[in-house]
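User: Design a sequence. Structure:
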């Protein structure tokens, strides 16, 4: 069984903000897989589906970013999912808008959602897809990540979201190494 998690913040005021790129990828992935992420449990919203014979869970933690690990560990414990089968998708300010970086492990890099995951899961060795949101040097970090994409950035983030969805599909069809080779 695979667990695919998109990080973000719940609520209309956070919808389509830079920090919610993980949620945007999950919503697009759900569209492509023809499912609704609408079951509420484990401090999150999730969908369970079969993909080429394998059980897959799509999860959007509803704990707010800084406590994302609480939801993820509940799902992992309930469904007995190994950390090797966890894939997390989230925003990264250190990359251009829409650029992807896939890794099998790494530090939180200052991302509070990932810090929470590492604390709850007990390791930083889990697969991740980071989606670039860039960083404006003259805006406070919190204001920037909770802001929306500009008109010029929108096509770039849309492409990044589509590529992240394709990378998840390669991960499910083949493996994460194939996804890294195709999208890094």
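Assistant: Done.
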């Amino acid at each position: 069984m695979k667990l695919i998690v998109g990080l973000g913040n719940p609520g209309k005021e956070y919808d389509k903000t830079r920090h919610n790129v993980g949620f945007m990828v999950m919503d697009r992935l759900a569209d492509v897989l023809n499912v609704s992420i609408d079951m509420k449990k484990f401090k999150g919203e999730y969908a369970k589906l079969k993909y080429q014979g394998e059980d897959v869970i799509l999860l959007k933690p509803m704990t707010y970013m800084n406590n994302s690990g609480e939801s993820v560990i509940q799902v992992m414990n309930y469904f007995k999912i190994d950390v090797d089968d966890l894939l997390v998708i989230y925003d990264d300010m250190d990359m251009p808008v829409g650029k992807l970086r896939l890794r099998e492990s790494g530090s939180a890099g200052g991302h509070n959602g990932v810090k929470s995951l590492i604390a709850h899961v007990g390791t930083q060795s889990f697969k991740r897809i980071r989606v670039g949101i860039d960083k404006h040097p003259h805006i406070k970090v919190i204001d920037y990540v909770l802001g929306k994409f500009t008109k010029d950035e929108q096509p770039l983030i849309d492409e990044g979201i589509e590529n992240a969805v394709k990378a998840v599909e390669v991960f499910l069809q083949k493996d994460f190494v194939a996804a890294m080779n195709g999208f890094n």
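The radius of gyration is 15 Å. Residues 154-173 form the longest helix (20 residues).
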